[in-house]
Amino acid sequence: MGFTRFMATTAGRLVRLVAGALLLAAGPALGGGWFVLAVVGLVPLFAAAFDVCLFAPLFSQPFRGRDARA
């Protein structure tokens, strides 16, 4: 599947890292109930840091990026 293959690449990890950082910054900046965005932003941030793709098992692909690239 193209999406999970892209997410296993370095560019895909960078996209997850940037998306997580943006959500993490947007939550406190917007204030109020939007603070939940900061918590949600931790998910793609940690997924990029640990080289995993949370959506890959839904498409019968390997969970770990290293396994997907092999």
Can you put this structure into words, describing what you see?
This protein is mainly α. It has one domain. The protein contains 4 helices and no strands. Helix 2 packs antiparallel against helix 3. The protein starts with a helix and ends with a helix. The mean pLDDT is 91.
Structural class: mainly alpha
Low-confidence stretches: none
Specify the number of helices: 4
Estimate nothing, just give the exact number of structural domains.
Answer: 1
Strand content: under 5%
What distance lies between the first and last C-alpha atoms, to the nearest angstrom?
14 Å
Radius of gyration, whole Å:
13 Å
Order of helices and strands: HHHH
Helix percent band:
55-70%
**The biggest beta sheet, please?**
none
Q: Give the strand tally.
A: 0
**What global shape is seen?**
elongated
Mean pLDDT: 91
What is this structure, in a nutshell?
With 70 residues, the protein is mainly alpha-helical. It is 66% helix and 0% strand. The protein has one domain.
Lay out the secondary structure.
Blueprint: H1 2-7, H2 10-30, H3 36-49, H4 65-69
Helix pairs in contact: 2-3
Question: Which keywords apply here?
Answer:
single chain, 70 residues, mainly alpha
